[in-house]
Amino acid sequence: MHAADTLGTLISPGAPIVRAPGAFDSFSARLVESAGFPAVYMTGFGATASRLGMPDIGLLTQTEMTEHARNMVRSTSIPVIADADTGYGGPSNIDRTVQEYIQAGVAAIHLEDQIAPKRCGQMAGIRLMPMEESARRIEAAVAARKGGSLLVIARTDALAATGHEDAIARAKRYRDAGADLVFVDGVKTRYDVDYVAENLAGPKVVSLVDGTEAATLSASDLEERGFSVVFYALTALFSAATAMRKSLLDLHETGVITAGNDAITYAEYSDIVGLPYHQKLDNEFGAL
Question: With a threshold of 0.85, does the pTM exceed it?
Fold first, then answer.
């Protein structure tokens, strides 16, 4: 079964909410899978951090993002939901973006309604495309599938830019344009989440960011509110950054490796990256 079909089954009516932690590279995607989650979210925020060490302000190109997605798909067996920013240009660019992500084996992409220079949905200063222009771009993405397997998620960043009512109006318009799921980004409070849940029917996505009031909601809370998918976009990235910074500062200060008892071992790491499989190949087919 194609990853998009697998994801489609996971989000079918009555199914449990799909929890998809964000992964910032292929290794963190493996960790998401090994933890038992049914899907992984390729966050553009994390991709920009891991590839450039820079903020999420639209600096990565379509080819860089597609390559990142392709590597993540290769590294896991669970569906990958990928950030596709604004589609990287006009209708022809959107068409190519959709085809590239299909060829990469991605299960779903989300397209947002910002204008350049785009930025993370939690940041100030977001500027939006006109609603109808953005709706036509969603139509272009849906048409670009040409029978290929890929779910299209329409994301609006209107919540922070123009308010709750416009965010809901845009999400509804994008659903009418053919989006498989809709995604109001930038929720920070429980009120934001409840407003979206109460005013937007059908399959929908929510993204919880560490440190916000909204992030105190559990997966069951979100499922009861009718959400189909929840992204934990930055949890793995922030956790990794916290642990790495601490260990490096300790090493710099003491000159001694001070990893705790819960630190990953070399053997555990080897299992995560699949070293035993490659050792088996070498034993069977390597040089005598």
Answer: yes
